Amino acid sequence: MYIELAIFVLFAFSYSLSAQHIEKLPISGPIIFLVFGFVIGPFGLGLVNVATNTEVLRWLADLTLAIFLFVDAANTRPRVLDKTYKLPLRLLLIGLPCSIFLGFVAAHLFDAQLGLPEMALLGVMLAATDAALGKPVVSNPQLPERMRTALSVESGLNDGLCVPLLLFFIALSEAGNGGHAAETSALILMAHELGIGLAVGLVVSVAGSGLLKIAGDRGWISEPWVMVPTIMLALSCFSLAQELGGSGYIAAFVGGLAYRREVGGFRQQLLGQAEGVGEILSMATWVFVGVSVIGLTLPLIGWPVLLYAVLSLTVVRMVPVFLSLAGTGETLETKLFMGWFGPRGLASIVFSLIVLNSHVPNAEFIAMVVLATVFLSTVLHGITANPFTRLLAKHLNNTR
To answer: Can you give the pLDDT at residue 130?
Structure first.
């Protein structure tokens, strides 16, 4: 394991030295991480031979998502959200269900062998957008803050909202012909996920943030430990909610919102280093995917799978976003931009691992479709993030 560790840390060190410059390039960090993992892995140079371990991959992805969701929510500006809450609300209440439905329809058109619950599963697994992959857009000051806030809140909440639906359709698929009883059980499970996640996120974050503020006011936190409380609080929200049967994603995001309110002036000092830890975990996750998953998946991807992936990133995402923003006063350009930048990433990978560990029929095929879409999204959204952002910013400046 030491040679694998040495290769990774040297790569991380080298990347960190030029991260700010790389973020301005047409290619994104996750693309570099995936390619690096593939090159050093058993399907490339063979420098690293790590067996595919779904538990390790899910663990890494879960920790990364929990930290990013918590930090993104804590960075949300309440005054801006008060003015622009209608945009993320429309994206979540109109755009998300429509995306799931269109994903279901597309799956029905391409693979009639899948059962209806499995088709719905595909729609759900690919409806959640990735807060981490969307960072080049939501953190770019060239864009109007209302757009950045809307996309950030949407990506923060849709992961958690999709988890109960994912479990609902998994339960239906596993129950087979269970009928009304199976549907009722799945709905109860969905309600538990949402309710427990919300409650745990609020209680843990409010209590922990209160203690953190007291310690900060009294100067009890030494400099080397500044980043620890935020990370541990984010992971506490996530892990306790998961253990109690709730949605850890909802808990992490709700916890982040409560955290911002409680810690006040200490927020920026506490969040900066925590976000850096999230970046390291994100890098490790994508490198692990590149080492152990890409080489196994790419040879199995045929034209139907690739076409479904393209539809998922375009029509299935963009049409619902366009419809959900009708009547908001947004221009055609901003609607298309927000529709395009719905990258799929870690959440969809985690959903694939959950399905693979279940008894859902055709689980391997479903996971392959999702992974193909994530790979395509990583490339396409990565290379278009900065150029499209500059074009839209220039257009908006010219129309003022």
So the answer is: 82
312 compared with 81, residue with greater pLDDT: 312
Q: Whole-angstrom Cα distance, residue 234 to residue 94?
A: 29
d(CA 67, CA 313): 25
Q: Span 321-336, mean pLDDT?
A: 91
224-269 pLDDT, tens digit each? 787 788 899 999 999 999 999 888 888 988 898 888 777 765 566 6
Q: How far apart are CA 244 and CA 195, in angstroms?
A: 11
